[in-house]
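Budget justification note: compute hours in this period were largely spent on complex prediction jobs such as the one shown. Inputs:
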Amino acid sequence: MLLRTRVAIVGAGPAGLVLANVLRQAGIDCLVVERRSRAHVENRARAGLIEHRTVEFLRAHGLAGRLLAEGAEHGSCEFRHGDGRFSVPYRELAGGRAHHVYPQQSLVRDLIAAYLADGGTLLFSHPAMAVADLDAPDGERAVLRCESPDSDPVLIECDFIAGCDGFYGAARPAVPAGRLRADVKQHEFGWLAVLAETPPATNEIIYALHRDGFAGHMLRTSSVSRFYLQCPVGDHPENWSDDRIWSALHRRLGLSDSELRPGPIIEKTVLDMRGFVAEPMRCGRLFLVGDAAHIITPAGGKGMNLAIADAAELADRLLVHYRSGNSAVLDGYSAARLPDIWHAQEFSHWLLHLLHSPVAGREDSAFLHRLQLSRLDRLRDSAAFAASFADSYAGPPARSPVR
Ligand SMILES: Cc1cc2nc3c(=O)[nH]c(=O)nc-3n(C[C@H](O)[C@H](O)[C@H](O)COP(=O)(O)OP(=O)(O)OC[C@H]3O[C@@H](n4cnc5c(N)ncnc54)[C@H](O)[C@@H]3O)c2cc1C
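Corresponding output:
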C-alpha cells in the first residue's frame, strides 16, 4: 500500500501525538504510525509530573480539558533525611509555576481521542522499519516503510518524517553514520520504579536520603502512587518481593504502615539511569523529537515535558514553513531546543547526586555524603539557593510561538 502525506510521524507517545494534533489543527496533512496497539499505549504508565509550560501549551491548543479537570496542581515538595524534614514551596519561589499531576497514559488517551475526533489518521500496530531518501532534494520526497499486521508493507511518501519513536525506535538508527553526535552518561546506581495501588501518604512529593539509598514518593492519582528506590546497577525486579519493597519504602521514607498503606503492586521495573543527547536533532528530512533524541533520568520529572516542548517547537516551525515557504526556519529547530534539553540534563544530574547514597566502599563515599548534607542545608536555609532549585524544578515559563 502506498500513502502520501506531508509529515509522517513515527510513534504515538506524548511527542508524536502533540505534534499530530497541532499540525492537524492547522490543516497540515500528517499521519501517525505506531508500533504497538491502542490498548498498549493507552495503558503504559510512566510520567505524571506535568510542567506549567506543558499545561499552558496543551491548554492553548484545547488539549488540556481532562488534565485541568482531573489533574491536581502541585507546588511544593518535601526533602527528608533522618529526622530532618523540610518543604520547598517551589510554586511560590518560581513565580507561580506549578506542576499538574496527571498520569501520562491518561494524557496519551486524551491526545489520541482528540486527534481521531479531528479526523486524524493513526495506524496502530504498524512498526516503522526503514526510512529512505532523507536527503531528497526539493521537489522530491522521503519514504517511510512500515510493517502492517494485515497487508503488504505500507510505504509512506512525505515531505518530512518526525521520529517521535522513543529511545529504541527506528528513526535515530536511520541517520547515516557520522551525522549525529551522542553524549552519554551512565549512572552508577539504578532505580527500582514501583507503581502501587495505594493512596498517596502525603500531598507532597517526598525525596528521602537514607543510608540504604534514596527513596522517592511520587503522586499519581487518589488511588495509585509511584515510588522509586535506589538499587545497584543491574539489579532485577525479581529480587524485590512486595514485602521487601514496602519495608524499604517505610524505612527510607520514614513513613509508618498507617501513613503509607501497603497495597497491590501493579508494576516494578529497574530503570537504567542514563542521560543521552543526540545532536543535531535534524538530518535532512528527518527530525528527532522527544526520547528519540534524548533521554533523561526520571529525577525531576523532565522527560515527557522535554518531549512535548520538542513537539511544540517543531510544530511551530513546520507551520511557518508551510505558510510562508520559509524552509530556513526548520534549520533552527535543533539549536532552539538544545539549551533547554541540556539545562534539564544538568538539573536532573544535580538532583540525582543530591539524593543518592554514594556507592558504598568508595574511598570518597563519606566525603560525598557530607557534600549532600551541605547542599540540603542550603536548600533549606538559603532563599536564593531554593529559588534557583524552584526555577529549574518547575521548568521554564510558557513559550512564545515561533513567527
Ligand atoms: C518510570 C518512569 C517515570 C517517568 N516520570 C516522568 C515524569 O514524572 N515527568 C516527565 O516529564 N517524564 C517522565 N518520564 C519520562 C517520560 O515517560 C518519557 O520521556 C516520555 O514518554 C517521552 O515521550 P516520547 O513521545 O518522546 O516517547 P515515548 O513515550 O517512548 O513514545 C514513543 C512511541 O513510539 C513507539 N515506537 C517505537 N518504535 C517504533 C517504531 N519503530 N515504529 C512505530 N512506533 C514506534 C512506541 O511504542 C511509543 O508509543 C518517566 C519515565 C519512566 C520510565
